[in-house]
Amino acid sequence: MSSNESLANLLKEERRFAPPGELAAAANVTAEAYGRAKADRLAFWAEQARRLTWAQEPTQTLDWSNPPFAKWFADGKLNVAYNCVDRHVEAGLGDRVAIHFEGEPGDSRAITYAELKDEVAKAANALLELGIRKGDRVAVYLPMIPEAVVAMLACARIGAPHSVVFGGFSADAVASRIQDADAKLVITADGGYRRGKPSALKPAIDTALESCPQVEHVLVVRRTGQETAWTEGRDVWWDEITARQSTAHTPEAHDAEHPLFILYTSGTTGKPKGILHTTGGYLTQTAFTHHAVFDLKPETDVYWCTADIGWVTGHSYIVYGPLANGATQVMYEGTPDTPHQGRIFEIVQKYGVTILYTAPTLIRTWMKWGDAIPAKFDLSSLRLLGSVGEPINPEAWIWYREHIGGGRCPIVDTWWQTETGSIMISPLPGVTEAKPGSAQVPLPGISATVVDDEAHEVPDGSGGYLVLTEPWPSMLRTIWGDDQRYVDTYWSRFEGRYFAGDGAKKDEDGDIWLLGRVDDVMLVSGHNISTTEVESALVSHPQVAEAAVVGATDATTGQAIVAFVILRGTATDSEELVAELRDHVGKVLGPIAKPKRILTVSELPKTRSGKIMRRLLRDVAENRAVGDVTTLADSTVMDLIQSKMPTAP
Ligand code: 6R9
């Protein structure tokens, strides 16, 4: 993309929503924080680090003497599990519920901080009994059950970095991640409940371990009770080994830069990248952002993040941020349509959830299912809504606000990545006048901007590439075992700046709008057009629930826009409707953005964290064999979509 053809700035969204007065008056973080952080960024982060309990207080904040390899709070020492659990019990909050667990079949468990402390200590002792020591890597392949949280905290407690792999990734995907991290132990379960039935997990581990000889033990949580193949001497039942452990375990103080976890991101091509996060900076920023962005009042709020722990959102905003802040939260094992499409709302009602954090993919699915479903439940406990994972289309934002938030809850659209560790760009719920579809402003202490091809900051009203211009506490420290790839991937495109890989624009007020991955940007007749803007235009038509657009090679225009749309429950597919949708995009964005072809489909290819995989749709649109589908949540979706496609290009 060159500067004179940077992303066409097409979408105009004029709606504005001021923060609710009551929330603003009592907000955890107010406008003053921006100025304070700007005046002295490092002093601001040093102050945030004091949210944590350190065994040895840091005297240094940032060491950036060897960029891009950062050290934060380097001479400090702390234990993450102590911060997430023990200190709340010591403060007299042991009876507070940490986790309201809701299993898919309807079983539930409430776990207090005191109980969580005992579980984590026993699991830490069990890891030690199995020969795991500080620095050893542990792979975690579990369903969404409390043992996943316990396992992660037990690893953190003894200083054994965990590598959580999505339960549901194939044996091959698990094997390559176990090998890359050279894990010594795997923690898994017999199975978990998905779509109304037990779904086995351990067989994938058994297969994966055929090519991972270094793994000494497999620790198996009993969740479904299904028949499970067993390797004597290697496999150990979680309940049996933890039952004989003491609830006493003294947490060791680890260096602030001790590795906390590795989490693999698939990226678009090539070998998955093991993103490395460390201890003190990561916990400081996850705790601060959870406090600031969600305005958490731990005494009264019931918080719920619907992500899977296999995704970074689950690490930072189910495990580390909320628990460091002493939150009470809901954890749900299953799918949102089991046994019925109102399941999420039923759980909100049951626990009186006040803060709900979810992804645009689920919001658009709810739109497809219809307004009548949330209307059947009492959602009046909600006071704040969050969104993460993809750009949220303005129309989906409005739907979320009205149908879930009752028109009263502020929405925080939070931009961040596995690599950033914590939320970076987001409105503050008590401060920012919200704009549907925009993440808007870097949080206090964060420096982000949009640059053109030559690294010049673009003027307000223009588009380009999102970059982060200063190091931040929860930044990735490297790619596990590959420092050079870390430098090449993130720090080489623009000298001294972190390249996020996302297109973005700044509006007339300087607010940031995310426009999708740079790899997905379409080049039509010499204009760079963002996938996000065309998708948002399609979703703004009342018959459309969800859309994915790609640029397909075209003899006349270079690339032509091809759109795949999912209609709302009430709409019927017809040639007239397709023509109407093309005209609608033309009206909203201008004729250049009109899709050449629109196909209606019933599903879109998505990753397990709900992101649309446009690369696969491009293969379909260009009549190629569909590429690697291993990270797809449901691989049958591609067959369905291809069957919709006429064979001639
Ligand atoms: C947390 C997470 C990172 C990529 C990121 C961007 C997209 C995430 C977004 C968003 C627009 C938001 N993304 N949040 N785009 N608005 N609020 O999703 O991490 O799985 O590593 O993905 O997701 O493209 O670069 P990860």
TrEMBL record:
Domain AMP-binding enzyme C-terminal: 533-611
PTM annotation: Acetylated. Deacetylation by the SIR2-homolog deacetylase activates the enzyme.
Annotated InterPro entries: Ac_CoA_lig, ACAS_N, AMP-bd_C, AMP-bd_C_sf, AMP-binding_CS, AMP-dep_synth/lig_dom, ANL_N_sf
Domain named AMP-dependent synthetase/ligase: residues: 92-472
Annotated positions binding Mg(2+): 539, 541, 544
Name by which UniProt lists this protein: Acetyl-coenzyme A synthetase
Annotated residues for binding of ATP: 389-391, 413-418, 502, 517
Function text: Catalyzes the conversion of acetate into acetyl-CoA (AcCoA), an essential intermediate at the junction of anabolic and catabolic pathways. AcsA undergoes a two-step reaction. In the first half reaction, AcsA combines acetate with ATP to form acetyl-adenylate (AcAMP) intermediate. In the second half reaction, it can then transfer the acetyl group from AcAMP to the sulfhydryl group of CoA, forming the product AcCoA.
Gene3D superfamilies linked: 3.30.300.30, N-terminal domain of ligase-like
Catalytic activity: acetate + ATP + CoA = acetyl-CoA + AMP + diphosphate
Protein family per UniProt: Belongs to the ATP-dependent AMP-binding enzyme family.
MF GO annotations: acetate-CoA ligase activity
Pfam families in alphabetical order: ACAS_N, AMP-binding, AMP-binding_C
EC number: 6.2.1.1
Keywords: Acetylation, ATP-binding, Ligase, Magnesium, Metal-binding, Nucleotide-binding
Necessary cofactors: Mg(2+)
UniProt KW Membrane keyword: no
PROSITE patterns (UniProt xref): AMP_BINDING
